[in-house]
User: Fold this.
Amino acid sequence: MHIPDGFINAPVSAAAGVVAVAGIAVALRRSSRELDDRTAPMAGLVAVYIFAVQMLNFPVGAGTSGHLLGGALAAILVGPWTGALAISVVLIIQALMFADGGLSALGLNIVNVAFVTVAVAWPLFRLLVRMLPRSRVAWMGASFVAALVSVPVSAAAFALEYAIGGNGTFSPGTVLAAMVGTHVVIGLGEGLITALTVGAVLAARPDLVLGVRDLLPKPELRTAPPVADGTRAPQSTTEGSPA
Assistant:
């Protein structure tokens, strides 16, 4: 999915760069609504985790391989705006330090991998978790579907960019069919990784998954019985967790 230099012409690459910069600027402003004492440190961990997992490629057939894009996972864990920023940072580091994706195509890669995946995965995930039972298994299933769908849509976005300004010799229809077909298979791997990761966080600390935080059981207030001198022990609360 990382587009190299020269694959898309300069005008389209420049336009995507403008869109990417504008998207990052909006995300920086909107992410303040998502960041708190739990989300802020989690955002850094998510970026590092996705950076590491993107280095692992898995075969998808016909001599091709795929890797995690991470947009759905980041959005589910830390919110759509913060998630898009985390993926953008990963893509910038990869382009500057590892030559993974061309510098002239950095805007294209940010649009496709950071913003398109989040824009697809976040509303789909939120719709599913409101419809499904409130359980860890159901939320893992919603994570799987959201991640799976986001990947071929991102591939279709690339095919559209190629149709507008591609420098290759293949027809847009051929590129669309090849990209979407391959990325459906990649999406299965993406969905599995996303579901397992979200499930692991839900099992340990469900309150760290911003995508379902508002659906968690409210903390229960427990009051200890009176002690010998007639006073009560300090009150404590327990954090609810999904079944």
In short: Helices lie at 10-30, 39-54, 71-78, 80-98, 106-131, 136-165, 172-204. Residues 153 and 227 are 62 Å apart (CA to CA). The domain at 10-238 is CATH 1.10.1760.20 (Arp2/3 complex 21 kDa subunit ARPC3).
